[in-house]
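pasting for ref. prot 1 ->
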Amino acid sequence: MAALAPLPPLPTQFKSIQHHLRTAQEHDKRDPVVAYYCRLYAMQTGMKIDSKTPECRKFLSKLMDQLEALKKQLGDNEAITQEIVGCAHLENYALKMFLYADNEDRAGRFHKNMIKSFYTASLLIDVITVFGELTDENVKHRKYARWKATYIHNCLKNGETPQAGPVGIEEDNDVEENEDAGAASLPTQPTQPSSSSTYDPSNVPSGNYTGIQIPPGAHAPANTPAEVPHSTGDIRLTPEDFARAQKYCKYAGSALQYEDVSTAVQNLQKALKLLTTGRE
């Protein structure tokens, strides 16, 4: 993939998107689709923050040039041309990164790579908002991942041993205010990472995640129950219901590309439940 023209210095008004832009640069070679949507999120967010100040206008203009160059390079990729495929790609990538970090956490293996993976997963869930409103499950995953990144980073910084798993989490614990702490151990400038700098979903066997169960009641949502209720009668589905069922099927297909049977089954179960009960 051709190198993109560099961006001008980040205006201070855009501090909230600096980590999303770093994630984009880290994925230019690893996963260009993820890189594209990270920049799209940064563009949309930046426009809302400040599109009038000269330095902001200049920055957004250069960011738009990067987006157009990427779109041209990825023009025949379904994840770019079809939103539903792009959303499925991004969700599955973020979920695999989350599950990698969660698996390390539960095994008591606390290190910078898993902190970064938790935090990057939360950033990618931010990015999913380019497709619309987040599901409740994604909101919970994002809050949990960002809280974990901050908590483990602070423990290691203070020489303390973190507690594994979702213990001691308060429902009203506001991790949004502390999001910089979760990335405090990361480079301050975007760099091309080494292969070990963070989790790459395409390089880790899916078996590492099979069977990971997240207890109900924790911020990390429980897996979808295996039992799907039978239809209770004449279910009238709306066009939106059919669209959501189709989305779950797309998610399942995307998961199978990673040989991730667990995620594929969960999404197929969601589609089946929606089609047979009219509820999610």
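and prot 2 ->
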Amino acid sequence: MESGGKAHPDCINASNPHHECVEYCFKRIEEAKSRADEIVEENKESLKEPKERTVHPDCINASNPFHECSEYCFKRIAEAKDRIERNESGMQQEDGIPSSFSGSHQSDAPLEQKQTEQLNDGGDAHCVQDDTVSGNPNLTEKQKKLFELRLKMNEARKANQMAMVAEKKKMEAPAETRGISKQKWLDERKKKIGKLLDSNGLDMSKAYMLDTQETAEAKYKKWEKDPAPYGWDVFNQKTLYNAHKKRTKNIECDMEAYNKAKEADPEFYREASSLQYGKATKVPEENIDRMVKELQDRDAKRKSFSRRRKFHEEKDIDSINDRNEHFNKKIERAFGKYTLEIKNNLERGTALPD
């Protein structure tokens, strides 16, 4: 071919607009063509598709046009069929379903898919062990060794993943020292309610329709109850008056004796300008005893009062008594994030000397 100032289409530099093929380029093109022809001639016999093949339709390699089933393939197919039948019969016995009913629906799936599923679930390991024990002549020693190595790799991979998950849990600091956090519990409860509302075709504004009668009554009682005072409201006149009524609710008052004492003393309610201001009035002994009893009952009630605290059995015990437990909580709040890595190393044993 004569070079007319243009690049040959088979030249490796044909994409270069400024390239012009010379004698060296044509020589390289001819060498590449001759080498390709030699490769085609060498592999012509191997590239031919066999006209007649003995391939079972249930074989997992049936899609390969160059595969021919051997005794090993038929053995694997028979074992897979037998395993599928045994699994189906076991499931039917557990569920109490007749075999004629479940078999008609489960047999529609292709056998190739069932074989692959069983191989993924561990059937491969079972078959490889059988082959190694029985010494199937169709498998060479290298293939048997390769299967064994694959099994060991799968076991090592699973163990590694489990160790990684455990390591990640230890490295992540817990959100709460005891139990689940309130915000997390509220989020999970909101998700559950949302699923129930979606299944009933409702939105979050209609969440009250899921409440039972008892739950609704408890909510109404809680809403009707006045909130407890906090801050400076504890010392205002209304709060003090309510506390006075609560304390005197169980004290009996003798109105006849009260009226008699009021009539006998014209200045029963003295003012600062009274001449009898500061003078002690006569109080019956039973009234004094009643007041002392009320003070004693109040003191006993204050001593017996204690806030209810949740106790979680799954939490690790790291204290010897309640006081030590309270101290450990304060230490954990202050220095827990700095000592987390040290604790994890001690639990794993990596912080200990060899």
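Residues 144 and 277 are 112 Å apart (CA to CA).
DSSP finds twelve helices and no strands in the chain.
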